[in-house]
Design goal:
493 residues, alpha+beta, Nucleotidyltransferase, domain 5, 6-stranded mixed β-sheet, 35% helix
């Protein structure tokens, strides 16, 4: 039997997942990496640590699966998007990777707006995304301007720049393949999503030489072969690369126009498949490439939220209100229904559909009835409120009523959160039996490209747990009004 390996390089760690020839998950191994946060709030990862963790995770997963490692027929990679890394020809990073959450390039974006009045329109029209420090173009420009030697290396043609997938493919192929896929390229603010090419005007705008960027190919393209530093006796083909949200969309089986998924991770990505024609958003979400496979490009609307699962981490690690994420559901259910506490988690600004990196969060509506349980409930509720705001924006932009929401990620195990999400969005919420949707989507895409899997085999009859709305309409509207009032307190600052 042939096996497929999925590698999911996410914000918190790296997962390796082994699937059999029918797409069944056999084993998973995880390796966490450090979250490097400076006193200025800058967020970084060590790319070398991630590379070493990738190798460790793969070896552990293969050992857990109890299979012959040389029976692995192909590899698919999903990655934390927007996290940006610059490295030399020999694969050595010139600095830590700048994580997608990091807003250090805010001043750089403001300077571009000030000096180039046409910039906002140009970026939006070519890339489907509004100018923001969230995306790699500004992060890579910051590296070129601030990291000693980076600009000189770029002028010499000795610098490599990209997202984490590019770095991993480069290291896995020992520098032979310098490539990204179109899903990751479409999120850089340097890639024209209609012409499917790096854009010379955008590169000039950000001061990034176009020739230091990787080749962009289909998500199911050929990304070289790897022995993973000698772990495999024979080179194994890397046959899929997708950004994690795109991989989750694929893994959820959202292959048709109008289907929607939400990934609950450190932040959240809400994504709607809109088919083979891009749409322009006027309600605060963005247009990206959903996936490119079989020579066809499929587009999506997407809203990205900075802090969802990270809010639970904040409760545990920073406030000390909980000892584990598993406690939150029971605490939330025990909270007083008369308490009206709201948390707006704008720790480093708000993402979609507001796009305000200049605002900060608040805890509002507290009273003498507000205790630990009420704060925990507010933290969970804010996740569902933010996702609902994005869903409503998508319906406006696409003109397509959403019929159901497919969800994935660790927080989907929280029964309270999933029921509240269904109630507040007034939609059925469908949770798949597996939570590794990003790694699964990348592995499935690789297996399909190699002819090992069929779509019907993978996606027919998925057994999903369903949550249906139970909240009275009047209560829903009251809660949504309270959330909007809390948001206004933040947005008016």
């Amino acid at each position: 039997m042939a096996y497929i390996l999925g590698i999911d390089q996410s914000t918190q760690g790296t997962k390796a997942i082994v699937f059999d020839g029918e797409g069944k998950l056999l084993a998973r191994a995880d390796e966490a990496h450090r979250q490097i946060i400076s006193d200025r709030g800058w967020v970084e990862h060590d790319p070398e640590e991630i590379w070493e963790n990738t190798k460790r995770a793969v070896k552990a997963a293969v050992e857990k699966a109890g299979i012959d490692k040389d029976a692995i027929a192909g590899i698919g990679i999903s990655n934390q998007r927007e996290t940006s890394v610059a490295f030399t020809r020999d694969g050595k990073p010139v600095c830590n990777a700048i994580v997608w959450q990091c807003a250090r390039a805010s001043a750089l974006c403001e300077r571009i707006r000030r000096e180039h009045p046409e910039a906002e329109k140009l970026v939006s029209e070519r890339t489907g995304i509004r100018l923001s420090p969230y995306f790699p173009a500004a992060k890579l420009a910051w590296i070129l301007e601030n990291v000693p030697g980076a600009r000189s290396l770029a002028k010499e043609g000795a610098l490599r720049c990209g997202t984490m997938d590019t770095y991993l493919v480069y290291r896995m192929t020992e520098g032979r393949v310098y490539r990204t896929d179109m899903t990751n390229a479409s999120r850089t603010q340097l890639f024209d999503i209609r012409n499917l090419a790096w854009d010379a005007d955008l590169c000039r705008l950000f001061g990034i030489p176009r020739d230091i960027l990787p080749e962009a190919s289909d998500s199911d393209g050929e990304f070289g072969e790897t022995t993973l530093d000698g772990f495999f006796a024979h080179p194994v083909p890397i046959r899929a690369v997708l950004g994690d949200s795109h991989a989750a969309l694929f893994g959820q089986g959202c292959l048709n126009k109008g289907q929607v998924k939400a990934t609950y991770g450190t932040g959240s990505s809400v994504m709607m498949n809109i088919g083979e024609t891009p749409a322009v958003s006027r309600h605060g979400v963005v247009t990206s490439i959903a996936f490119a496979r079989g020579g066809k490009v499929f587009y999506c609307l997407e809203g990205n939220i900075n802090y969802t699962g990270a809010v639970i981490t904040w409760l545990k690690d920073d406030l000390g209100l909980i000892q584990s994420a598993g406690e939150t559901g029971e605490l939330a259910e025990s909270a007083s229904p008369e308490d009206h506490t709201y948390l707006v988690p704008a720790f480093t600004g708000l993402g979609a559909p507001w796009w305000r990196d200049d605002v900060r969060g608040i805890l509002t509506g507290i009273s003498r009835t507000t205790r630990r349980a009420e704060i925990v409930r507010a933290a969970l509720d804010c996740i569902a409120y933010q996702i609902t705001d994005v869903l409503r924006a998508m319906e406006e932009d696409a003109g397509i009523p959403i019929q159901e929401l497919r969800v994935d990620g660790g927080p989907t195990k929280n029964r309270y959160l999933m029921q509240f999400q269904s109630d507040i969005a007034d939609l059925p919420v469908l949770v798949p039996p597996a939570e590794e949707l990003s790694g699964m989507g990348a592995a499935y895409c690789a297996g399909l490209s190699l002819g090992i899997y069929s779509e019907e085999q993978l996606f027919a009859g998925t057994n999903r747990k369903e949550y249906r709305p139970e909240m009275a309409a009047a209560i829903r509207e009251e809660k949504l009004a309270g959330w909007q009032a809390a948001l206004e307190q933040v947005l008016k600052k």
